Amino acid sequence: MLAPAPDDPLNQEAASFHNYMGKSCDNVDCWNSEIAPVAADVPVVTGEFAQDVCGPSNFDDEYMSWADAHGVGYLAWAWVVLTQQEIADEGCSAYYLISDYSGAPASPNGTILHGHLLTLPPGGVTLAANPPTTTVNTPAGGAGSGGQQAQTQQKPLIALTAFHVKVAAGGAAIDFQLGAAESCQGTLKGETAKGFLAGSKGHKPRKVSLGGVNFRLVAGKTRSVILRLTAASRQLLATRHSLATHFTLTLSGPQSRPTVLERAVTLTEPGSRRHPS
Predict the structure, then answer these.
(1) Cα→Cα distances 94→36, 55, 86, 108, 260, Å
(2) Cα angle at 254 between 50 and 118, to 5 degrees?
(3) Which domains does the chain have, with CATH numbers?
(4) Helices 59-70 & 109-119, crossing angle to 10 degrees?
(5) Closest CA to 76 of 59, 105, 99, 96
(6) Contacts of 271 (CB under 8 A, 6+ apart)
(7) Strand, helix or coil at 191?
């Protein structure tokens, strides 16, 4: 039993902590040494967690993947809608998961959480007897011992080697040039970066889905993946000529952990002066 701990005769104790990027325990080494031993003894719930919003990071997905493998629960922070002024005031700590109260995920924390939860099996994760790790045998430290000791390492995330975007002629589809360091399968989904009014008066602005596509990548090779735009997004692009969008890639492969990547892309109608970023 962990010490010190409350003396509960019913043995109904649980532990909780907050996990934010940039804090003292924001890495796998700390989670393995500090959190895993507690989780092996009592249920652990991450009461809050989030990554900084100022730049790209794998913190959210890395932690959720680790927590899934170790039977640790997690609650992302926070289910609130912030005004533009509040977002500016909070800076890199603007932790909000939704962009409106219909529940539309907000980038980066909301979209990463949403994408990760979609990768989990129905009914949740069944925890194996031992968390998924890669075992590497290395020579033991003792001189002349000739023995070996096992070192466990968590599987890495999947790295993209290519991500290029072009709106196809006619504006009905997007041509993605994708590549990865290892063979994997994935899902690509997109939506507009901001909401638009649609339908009758009184409707709230909503982000517009761009559609989605499943694909497979072969290690070291770049391939074309075509996403056919939804009718609503085609009309928006034709009307506005340029459209700020957000894409979520969910990747999985035998050598790595499930990986969720976020990309902001400005789409430009073919024939205009600007080009997609």
Answers:
(1) 28, 12, 8, 10, 20
(2) 40
(3) 15-119 (no CATH), 160-268 (2.60.40.2550)
(4) 40
(5) 96
(6) none
(7) strand
Token representation of residue 112:
């990463």
Q: What is the pLDDT of residues 196-236, one digit of tens each?
A: 876 445 567 888 999 999 999 999 899 999 999 999 999 99
pLDDT of amino acid 150: 45
Residue the block writes with tokens 């129905």 = 122
Under 8 Å between Cβ of 251 and 185: yes
| Res 231: pLDDT | 92
Amino acid occupying residue 126: T
Q: Which of 194, 214, 213 is nearest to 205 (CA)?
A: 194
Q: Which two tokens stand for residue 227?
A: 């996403």
Residues in Cβ contact with 159 at an 8 Å cutoff, skipping those fewer than 6 apart: 180, 181
Structural tokens at position 4: 């010190």
Mind giving me the DSSP string for 212-242? EEEEEE-TT--EEEEEEPPHHHHHHHHHHSE
Q: Tell me, what amino acid is at 172?
A: A
Whether the pLDDT of residue 24 is over 80: the answer is yes
Cα Rg of the chain, angstroms = 22
Residue 142 has pLDDT above 50, yes or no: no
| pLDDT beyond 80 at 159 | yes
Burial of 239 (0-12, 13-18, 19+ CB in 10 A): exposed
